[in-house]
Amino acid sequence: MKSQLAKFVCFASISSLLTLGCSSLAQFTLAQGRAVGTVAQGTLLVKRSGASAYGPLSSGTLFAGDLVKVENGSSAAIRCLANNITYTLPDDGIPQGVADICP
């Protein structure tokens, strides 16, 4: 009887660890980048989710809640990670949501 109880406790512990592992994996997946931004010339501005101001981005990962805008006379693009398509952003200074560009 003791050996059966020990096996059950061991299984329950392993099951809990697997559940925690899956939960952590789901959270990690949600935090992964949506796109990569690149600047050919000038300035690409990014406003991170929850931030109050824009800052320059020469290159780097963009997330679903980020806003991007390209200053007049600049040229920049973002490559969507899900489909590997690169989109050239207009230099009109109008903010665009990364999630809208890379659904």
Q: What is the tally of beta strands?
A: 8
Radius of gyration: 22 Å
Major sheet: arrangement of strands: 4-1-6-7
Largest sheet: 4 strands, antiparallel
Tally of domains = 2
- Shape assignment: globular
- Residue-averaged pLDDT: 75
* Share of residues in strands: 25-35%
**Portion of residues in helices?**
25-40%
Number of helices: 2
| H-E string | HEEEEEEEEH
- Terminal residue distance: 55 Å
Class by SSE composition: alpha+beta
- Taking pLDDT < 50 over at least 5 consecutive residues as the criterion, the unreliable ranges are 1-31
Could you explain how this protein is built, in words?
The chain is an alpha+beta fold. Helices cover 33% and strands 32% of the residues. The chain has helices at 2-31, 98-101; strands spanning 35-41, 44-47, 55-56, 59-62, 67-70, 75-80, 86-89, 96-97. A hairpin with a 7-residue loop joins strand 2 (44-47) and strand 3 (55-56).
Fold topology:
Layout: H1 2-31, E1 35-41, E2 44-47, E3 55-56, E4 59-62, E5 67-70, E6 75-80, E7 86-89, E8 96-97, H2 98-101
Antiparallel strand pairs: 1-4, 1-6, 2-3, 2-5, 5-8, 6-7
Throw out a few tags for this protein.
single chain; 103 residues; alpha+beta; four-stranded antiparallel beta sheet; 8 strands; 32% strand; disordered N terminus
Short précis:
This protein has 103 residues and is of the alpha+beta class. It has helices spanning 2-31, 98-101; strands at residues 35-41, 44-47, 55-56, 59-62, 67-70, 75-80, 86-89, 96-97. The chain is built from two helices and eight strands; from the N terminus they run H-E-E-E-E-E-E-E-E-H.
